[in-house]
Amino acid sequence: MNNYFIILASGQSKRFNSYKSKQYIIYKNKPLFEHSLDKALSSKLFKKIIIVVNDKRQINKKLPKNVIVIKGGKERSDSSLIGLKYIKKFKPTNILIHDAARPNFSIKILKNLVKSLKKNKAVVPIINTKDSIKYRVKNQLFNLNRDQSFLTQTPQAFRFNDLYNLSIKQKYKIQDEATLFIDSNLKVKFIKGENSNSKITYKEDIETNKTFVGIGFDIHRLIKGKKLYLGGLKIPFHSGLKGHSDGDVIIHSIIDALLGSMRKKDIGTLFPDNKKKFKNIRSPKMLKPVIEMINKNEFYINNVDINLICEQPKVSKFRDKIIKSLSKLLNIDSSLINLKGKTVEKLGLIGKEKAIACEVICSISQ
Ligand code: ZN
Fold first, then answer.
1. What are the residues whose beta carbons fall under 8 Å from the beta carbon of 48, sequence distance 6 or more?
2. Domain range summary for the chain, segments of one domain joined by +
3. Are 328 and 322 in contact (CB under 8 A)?
4. How many A from CA of 306 to the centre of ligand 1?
5. Using one digit for the tens of pLDDT, what is the confidence trace for 32-59?
């Protein structure tokens, strides 16, 4: 195992509109370049890992002994050459070069690359293009045949001496090391790349959806002779839930969970129970403005999980109907709603069938 890994993290991020160089921006809970570093480390394939940066001070954490940080050059091709010259003294057999802006490669591809180097001098992962590409020569446009075009990714793997000898002779700024082999008519072995291993170039590339969760709870007393509503559905039962409205604990809990996830206080603020106009209001009517709030703020509901806590009626009898009703009211697919029935071993008010309680957790994204 005489493999070395160079991570190029010294790009100027010209297309990345941020005060921080993109290599240090936090992506999935850690600086972008650390994704590549951590995978290289856990693959255990490399004797040394060299990170090429603009400014060594930008990496302010303690790194394992076999990780070395060096200062790069102005362009990517300069930094790559600086890295190669630096590791020459270790007499590497194989070298993998990788752009820190691609954090989503797999350890499996590292293994495939190293394995393929046994029979090849240059191994490069490629993927097919999803878009059709045009290119311009002077003022004329040409179509690239999509079936015969592909995109090269990093990490790219090489026999060190072959790459080194080509690199020191390079006459122009290359965008990847494969270019050196191709321009010299040398064989490059292409292996299947990974669609997920795309390059983070623009700020939009890392602006993932923000997800929030909310929790809701409600309890109402059961009284004889009142209609029972659960999840917007009328349930045949000898008692119903007492309340300022129709006492639908499921919908009330959902409203609170949704408001909580949007960080918009609670159901009591939205529908004060000293207001006459809300007296005997049906709960689906209360849910409506909350759904409108979700839509207006460009949220969407990921899922809703419900615990209905009561001895009677048995949830299993009405589960599908209640979910169907909620799916309509929330305007989401029924597969996103889960309803569980929970008894309390005949304990307390709920156990004596004098009350029904409900708790809901929901997740929304923007
Ligand atoms: Zn309530």
1. 4, 5, 66, 67, 68, 87, 90
2. 3-206, 211-365
3. no
4. 15
5. 899 999 999 999 999 999 999 988 887 8
Q: What is the pLDDT of residue 13?
A: 66
Output DSSP code: residue 57: G
How many whole angstroms from 300 Cα to the centroid of ligand 1?
24
Residue 221 CA to ligand 1 centre (angstroms)? 10
Q: Which CATH class is domain 211-365?
A: alpha beta
User: Tokens at residue 10, please?
Assistant: 């010294």
Q: Quick one: tokens of 118?
A: 């046994």
Kindly give the distance from the C-alpha atom of residue 102 to the centroid of ligand 1, in angstroms, as a whole number: 50
Per-residue tokens: 324:
């169907």
**What is the distance in A from the centroid of ligand 1 to the CA of 2?**
67
CATH number of 3-206: 3.90.550.10
Domains 3-206 and 211-365 agree in fold: no
Q: Hey, what are 326's tokens?
A: 């909620």
pLDDT above 80 (res 206):
no
Distance 268 CA to ligand 1 centre (A): 9
Extract the tokens encoding 220.
Answer: 């109402």
Question: Does the predicted model carry a pTM greater than 0.90?
Answer: no
Q: Distance, CA 71 to ligand 1 centroid (Å)?
A: 63
